[in-house]
Amino acid sequence: MVRVVEIIADLRVADVASAREFYASYLGLSTEEFNLGWVARFTSPDTGANVQVLTRDAAAAEDPVISIKVDDVDAAYQDAQRRGYEIVHSLRSESWGVRRFFVRAPDGNVVNIVQHHERTGR
Fold first, then answer.
1. End-to-end distance of the chain based on CA atoms, in angstroms?
2. 122 pLDDT band (50/70/90 cuts)?
């Protein structure tokens, strides 16, 4: 069974820089954890609450609606395959420090299952 570590909303935006004004300035999610130009995460320095915004996933054919961090992405991938779920972005290590895959939930939503490299050792 997969152990979920964190769940992050992936909000679709037209432009990451324009979204910063609303999420960072207005809502106070002023810590920019990362910004790859097409995806960024804004976090509250007080509470740790966050939101991730993306224009489109630059490395995948489809965009996820949510990112779910897990403790063992390889096991999660094997379990999704065993259960017959549609894999829409195969398991791989990405250059920005994560290992991930996308799976389509039975309701049609695309979910990014992810683990940071420091936890996978890959």
1. 21
2. very low
What range defines the domain where residue 52 resides?
4-120
Q: With the C-alpha atoms ordered 90, 116, 55, 27, is the resulting torsion angle positive or negative?
A: positive
Q: Structure pTM?
A: 0.83
CATH of the domain at 79: 3.10.180.10
Beta bridge partners of 20: none
Q: Write out pLDDT tens, residues 60-101.
A: 889 999 999 999 999 999 999 999 999 999 999 999 899 999
Residue 96 token pair: 């920005």
In 3D space, the residue among 59, 62, 67 whose CA is nearest the CA of residue 6 turns out to be 67
Number of domains in the chain: 1
